[in-house]
Design brief:
The chain crosses the membrane at residues 20-40. Keywords: Membrane, Transmembrane, Transmembrane helix. The protein is an all-alpha fold. It has a domain at 29-57. It contains one helix and no strands. The chain has one helix at 15-54. It is elongated.
Length: 70
């Protein structure tokens, strides 16, 4: 008879694999968040250019200004 008080324990969860799984899931989540932030920034830039073009302006391209050395 196997009862609750016979001293048997259930096998422990494999803690090593759980840690690896958590690390992989955290990495996946971090990449997903970074991709979302990048996508939002890109969409905002595109929206600005489209708004500029919709107003009839001709010079709507983003101008990259190099930083000057001091």
């Amino acid at each position: 008879m196997s009862g609750a008080g016979d001293g048997r324990r259930e096998p422990p969860d494999n803690e090593g694999n759980r840690g690896i799984e958590n690390a992989v899931m955290f990495g996946f989540f971090a990449v997903l968040v970074a991709a979302g932030i990048w996508l939002l920034g890109t969409m905002a830039d595109i929206r600005k250019v489209q708004d500029c073009a919709a107003q009839g302006r001709r010079n709507c391209a983003t101008v990259e200004v190099p930083e000057r050395a001091q």
